[in-house]
Amino acid sequence: MPASRPKFSPQAVFLALFYGFVFRLSxxxxxxxxxxxxxxxRWLGVQEAFxxxxxxxxxxxxxxxxxxxxxxxxxxxLKRNKLLDPRRL
Length: 89
Prior knowledge:
Elements: H1 10-22, H2 28-35, H3 38-44, H4 52-60, H5 64-80
Helix pairs in contact: 1-2
């Protein structure tokens, strides 16, 4: 049986999650009304809105330990370069 194409592209899901991160939305449910706006759908490159279930399902396949290691490395780099200095924030 051939693999079916996903209804929403990984790029669209990433952009939606990035949007939620940038605007500090605390849950996928808070993100859902924004994704229902036609202008946001054009920006994401989708024909219809998708909900929190799509975002949750997409993130279920992530390998969490490697993401945690990447987060630690980024924080170390920021600290080493003194970008987390309280006087700079």
